[in-house]
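Example record

One chain of 401 residues, shown exactly as stored in the release files.
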Amino acid sequence: MSRPPFEVAEIFRRFGAAHRHVNEGHLNLGQLKVMAAIEKCRTAALGGHVDRCDGCGHTRISYNSCGNRHCPKCQAAAAKEWLADQESNLLPVPCFHCVFTIPEQLNPVVYQNKAVACDILFKAAAQTVLTIAADPKRLGVKIGLTAVLHTWGSTLTFHPHVHMIVPGGGISLDGKRWISAKQRYFLPVQVLSSLFRRLFIEKLRAVHDQLRFFGEVSGLADAEAFRRFLAPLRQITWNTYCKPPFAGPEEVLRYLSRYTHRVAIANSRIVGIDDDAVRFRYKERRDGKVSMKIMTMSPHEFIRRVLLHVVPDGFHRIRHYGLLASGHKAKNLARARELLDVPPPEPKAKAEIVDEDGVVHEDSSLPPCPCCGGRMVIIEWFERGCLPRHQPSPPKPKDTS
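Predicted structure tokens for this chain:
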């Protein structure tokens, strides 16, 4: 895969120092950490290693990644590793994609209280699906689900919502049968929306004394004002939907790879950077149609919007519930496979690479040689802030014939 011509890291390196200066005292520690990590990602500041092809001798320098979960480059690799672990959790049944979104009136409250409010968003959405699925009038089953938090819209505005992958069926309440959902229908969306709305509002009201309110919503610090603010939201429809199921486990994995470790904006969406503007692609939905547009904004506005989506340290953006909750997942999956009469997945051996000194590394991430496609081996490691002893091979001349 070719490297995108423009990157978020480039924008942060060019304009980050000025942005920090202009917004001194207004950026929190988490945002500053994210900026520093992305700026240093895959540079000599983090150290790295030198690879050499054991066939043609081509040499290249590979700088270490920052590993930050808000970094577009690092999350692609993290998604690959996470997906490999998730293959064993997939059941050979159709999977539905559900989305739960809160009204935009709540966005300022959620933004100022990300850890508490987004935790409630997760719990309310998961409890909604688990409760309706267990209702004997519906499916009457215990289900499992994987939920992922996204906080952005296509134009990088703050838009918190939860995506879910839910197997189309579950274990009967008595534990004796696997009951499948209808082929293209999971649960009634209106019922899901109504219960989600009630649960979210109840849970948010219950923690009012833990919430902070600033600026335009500062008046909501008063409990009665907060109750009045929430009252109209009980009367409107909350945006909830379920898409038809995926074609199979492979399609589920492809979908998860796009969603689980996605960040606010991928490098591939950026189409231009200059001293005055950043330009990027976004999706515009109008009259049921989706079209690609180009948005232009100042570098400082771009950085501000990216930093809107920094989640608190320790906050889990990917969570599992029901049959897939970590405490009993292995037991529940084994029982589900027994009821479905399918064998357990075979464990996959980790690929290994061996460097020139014969040291074995459990790592299969070294790309092949760009010249001959041969195997690359590590010949040197260098520390943070240091330069490697070996030099990279000169670029291969372009074929002009």
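Notes: The chain has two domains: 8-68+352-382, 72-264+308-340.
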